[in-house]
Specification:
Layout (H helix, E strand, L loop, with lengths): L2 H9 L5 H12 L9 H8 L3 H10 L5 H12 L23 H21 L3 H12 L4 E5 L3 H14 L4 E3 L3 H8 L7 E5 L6 H13 L2 E6 L5 H5 L2 E4 L14 H19 L1 H16 L5
Parallel strand pairs: 1-2, 1-3, 3-4, 4-5
Helix pairs in contact: 2-4, 6-12, 7-12, 8-12, 9-10, 12-13
């Protein structure tokens, strides 16, 4: 699967109706992008030129020309090795017929979540995020449900290197801590979308406080992606939500590990003693 198609599918549900028509047309007729001008593409898809421009911007490109360039670059870059492995079949938990098919599907969705998120990796944005976190007075982390797994993981990692970091699984405690956010602090939000009312309430408070806001979320035009100071995109193939099974946490954890490693690398002179001390404490624990 290529990056452009993954971007389209990742933010498809958040697109307005006219832009969904454009998305459907592009997914089915991507070669037409190189054959026809935007006026004819609009006619063929039953939309407008403005819808095509907004669609390109919604999935992360400057415009149709930038989108075409991305498709052209992918046509000249082989991603076959990355796409090898078990194929994904979207099923609910009661539809599997063997343990092997369960393992195959979980493996495929987990691997693809990491691969597709990696392909969306933006070095410039990531560098800005690392700079903000390293220089922050306090780092506050927020995540509800599955997203809290990645938030807690980053919390533990930053504690290990002696960062002033806060994370609460209790929503009311999160409200209390975010109410104390101030300029110079960083508030980082893990979310699959911008529909979670608790996350968005905390985000709005953080934004008003003047703290730097960062989101790890899916592609799409929503409050998080358009209003956050910095956005790191995570995407994943979704299994039926009735099952409570989601590969999005693998995408989030990939970004957490990359982020933590980059922070520790950038700030190594200041944190290496904390790494050594924590290693020695755990290494000296009595063995069972």
């Amino acid at each position: 699967m290529n990056v452009v198609s993954e971007r389209i599918k990742s933010c498809y549900n958040s697109l307005p109706a006219s832009e969904k028509l454009v998305a459907d047309y592009v997914l089915q007729n991507k070669d037409d992008l190189f054959l026809f001008p935007i006026k004819e593409l609009a006619q063929k898809s039953g939309t407008t030129q403005a819808s095509w421009t907004r669609f390109a911007q919604a999935i992360g490109y400057d415009g149709l020309k930038d989108l075409k360039n991305a498709y052209y670059a992918e046509a000249n870059t082989s991603l076959k090795q990355a796409d090898k492995g078990p194929k994904i079949a979207f099923k609910d938990v009661n539809e599997y017929t063997s343990l092997q098919s369960i393992a195959d599907n979980i493996c495929a969705t987990s691997v693809q979540a990491v691969q597709t998120t990696y392909r969306l990796f933006d070095v410039g944005t990531f560098n800005d995020v690392v700079t903000k976190i390293v220089g922050a007075k306090q780092v506050q982390l927020f995540g509800i449900g599955t997203a809290s797994v990645a938030a807690y993981d980053l919390y533990c990692k930053l504690l290990r290197i002696h960062y002033n970091v806060v994370f609460n699984q209790d929503f009311h405690m999160s409200l209390m801590t975010v109410s104390q956010a101030a300029p110079g602090d960083v508030c980082l939000f893990f979310s699959d979308n911008a529909k979670n009312k608790e996350v968005m309430q905390c985000f709005n408070i953080a934004k008003e406080s003047g703290a730097t806001t960062i989101a790890i979320t899916k592609l799409g035009n929503n409050t998080l992606t358009t209003s956050c100071d910095h956005v790191l995109f995570a995407t994943s193939p979704e299994i039926d939500k009735k099952s409570g099974i989601t590969s999005s946490r693998f995408a989030h954890l990939f970004l957490v590990d990359t982020l933590y490693t980059a922070i520790a690398n950038r700030d190594y002179d200041n944190i290496r003693e904390y790494l050594r001390d924590s290693y020695e404490v755990f290494n000296e624990m009595p063995k069972d």
